[in-house]
Design a protein that fits this description.
The complex is a heterodimer. Chain A is 95% helix and 0% strand. By secondary structure, chain A is mostly helical. The longest helix of chain A is centred in the middle third of the chain and has 115 residues. Chain A is elongated, with a radius of gyration of 61 Å. Chain B folds into 2 domains: 74 residues, no CATH class; 68 residues, no CATH class. In chain B, 57% of the residues lie in helices and 17% in strands. Chain B has a 4-stranded mixed beta sheet with strand order 2-1-3-4. The chains are: A mainly alpha, B alpha+beta.
Chain lengths: 226, 157
């Protein structure tokens, strides 16, 4: 019984390990497959682009060659028609008129294309002009705004400078007036002082001078000079 | 120590004079020949100065150079009372003023008197950095300031 169980256990483990290996192998293969797929996808895109480019080149070449062939054929046909004498004048004229018709139609088409182009250019130019005008107007408006701002600033600065100058002049005048008044005061005082001095000089005796000095010293003492 | 001799000094110029005399003696003491100091003491100084110094040197404890240098320092420490007067004072006037100062202010004060007749009368007093214009001119100026308008009015008539 025990052997059977062991066999089952070991068998299960073995199977599980084997399944693990298989899963790992599958995952690795899947990753590789994905890489290969992406590589192929990129190569396909590159090939497609190359093919498209080559096709474009071939088409352009064919178009050029076709145009050259048509031009050449047209020239040759005209030459043959002009030079042949086997054709009747009527046929020649019909062919010539047919050629003229083709030429006229081409010319008209060209004119029409030209006209359309002109119209388109006019429209584009009109649009460009309108854009330019709008842009110019915006620039002008901005410039005018800046100018106005500068003007206001300048006016304010000028006004301040004028006021300052006026104030200074007023101050100077007041100072000058004060100085002149002081000078007048001083002059009158000097005149009066001289007169008084002459009077006192004669009137005050030596003893009175000494007495006045003594009184001055007493006054100084009262005023706590000493 | 020096009160007696300094009590004779009333003015700044007197203080300078005494200082010069002390310098002369010190000069003789340090550089002169023996006996020159005593000669100078008797012959080159004012009588009262000579008398005061001889009296001081009579004391054997007094060293001459120390005493003289001390006296010089004491002269330098005398306090000055600057007075501007309207008249040129006589010696008698100076003595009167100095007496008043000694009695009312204190000792060791010397007068530095200048003459300025434009102050009319009275005095301008400067003492230890304090200034007072107690002249008649200043009183006159004050009166002029107070009665300025009236004076102009009178002058305008």
């Amino acid at each position: 019984m025990s052997n059977a169980n062991d066999f089952l256990l070991y068998g299960s483990i073995l199977i599980a390990i084997a399944l693990g290996f298989i899963v790992a192998a599958v995952v690795i293969l899947y990753v590789r497959l994905l890489r290969e797929h992406n590589k192929l996808k990129e190569e396909k895109a590159a090939l497609s682009a190359e093919a498209q480019r080559q096709a474009q080149e071939i088409l352009e070449k064919a178009q050029k060659e076709g145009e050259q062939l048509i031009t050449s054929a047209h020239q040759k046909a005209a030459e043959i028609i002009k030079n042949t004498e086997i054709l009747s004048t009527d046929s020649k004229n019909k062919m010539l008129s047919a050629l003229e018709e083709v030429s006229r139609v081409n010319t008209e088409n060209f004119k029409k294309t030209l006209s359309d182009a002109k119209s388109d250019i006019a429209t584009v130019l009109a649009k460009v002009s309108k854009d330019l005008a709008t842009s110019a107007l915006t620039e002008v408006a901005t410039f005018r705004g800046t100018l106005q701002k500068d003007l206001i600033t300048t006016q304010a600065a000028l006004s301040a400078a004028v006021n300052e100058g006026y104030k200074k002049i007023e101050e100077e005048m007041a100072k000058y007036r004060q100085v002149r008044l002081s000078q007048v005061d001083e002059t009158i005082f000097e005149i009066l002082r001289e007169v008084t001095q002459k009077i006192i000089g004669r009137a005050v005796s030596f003893e009175e001078h000494e007495e006045l000095v003594k009184k001055s010293l007493e006054e100084a003492k009262r005023q706590n000079i000493f | 120590m020096y009160n007696e001799i300094l009590s004779h000094i009333r003015t700044k110029s007197e203080a300078w004079q005494l200082e010069d005399e002390v310098d002369l003696l010190l000069d003789h003491l340090y550089k002169g020949k023996a006996g020159e100091f005593d000669l100078a003491l008797k012959n080159d100084l004012r009588a009262w100065v000579s008398e005061q110094l001889l009296s001081a040197f009579a004391n054997p404890d007094v060293k001459k150079d120390e005493y003289l240098r001390g006296l010089k320092e004491a002269i330098a420490k005398l306090r000055e009372l600057k007075l501007t007067l309207a008249f040129e004072p006589t010696q008698n006037s100076i003595e009167k003023i100095h007496d008043w100062v000694r009695r009312n202010v204190g000792e060791n004060i010397i007068l530095d008197v200048t003459f300025n007749p434009t102050i009319f009368a009275g005095a301008i007093v400067i003492f230890e950095g304090k200034y007072r214009d107690l002249s008649l001119r200043n009183k006159f100026r004050e009166q002029f300031g107070e009665n300025r308008e009236r004076i102009f009015e009178i002058l305008g008539k």
